[in-house]
Amino acid sequence: MLARLHNDHKHIAILLTLLQKKQHRLENAETVNFNLIRDIVEYMQSYTEHSHHPLEDLIDDFYIQKYPSELNEKRLADEHERLVESSSTLMATLNLILSDIPVQLEQMSEVLKEYIDLQTRHMIYEEQHLFPKWQAGMTDEDWLSVGAQCQERLISDPLFNDDDNVLFEDLREYLAKVDD
Q: What is the C-alpha to C-alpha distance for residues 116 and 10, in angstroms, rounded to an integer?
């Protein structure tokens, strides 16, 4: 399960790097493809917020049941909630722009920067603090048990997989061009 979460983080980091480049272009008053940014945020909302984060929450709940003294640290759930709020704000701003409603580029740049920073800090926290704590504190039997609980929340990654899913096809094609 941790390997899947690490892998998701690698994919999210690719998208955050792309968003960061777009945000720098906005800061410099250069043109950006707002549809591409929207596709990335939509992916983050559909996959990360509905599969990746719920898996982390399930694992954390399992861990807290095993180690009740850890209950006082609610950082994971709080961060997941802030990320949902931030992505919603970002998507609302993008939808205004894509609907030809005037939005200052500085505002869009700031909302995007805030989202990128929040996502980046969140992944650093998980990779450096949370995942090692789970790894050290949970047995193989624990991982089997939590893995069984997670099965109903697992969905196939609609962007970073090899199936014929047409969802996010434009974004997938863009990423393939960037890799070349």
A: 14
Q: pLDDT tens digit string along 44-101?
A: 998 888 889 999 999 999 999 988 887 656 789 899 999 999 999 999 999 999 999 9
Whole-prediction pTM:
0.85
From CA 140, how far away is CA 143, in angstroms rounded? 5
Q: Residues 63, 133: contact at Cβ < 8 Å?
A: yes
Q: Is 165 left (phi over 0), alpha (psi -120 to 50) or beta?
A: beta
Distances (CA, A) of 168 to 42, 130, 176: 9, 30, 12
Rounded distance, CA 96 to CA 16, Å? Answer: 22
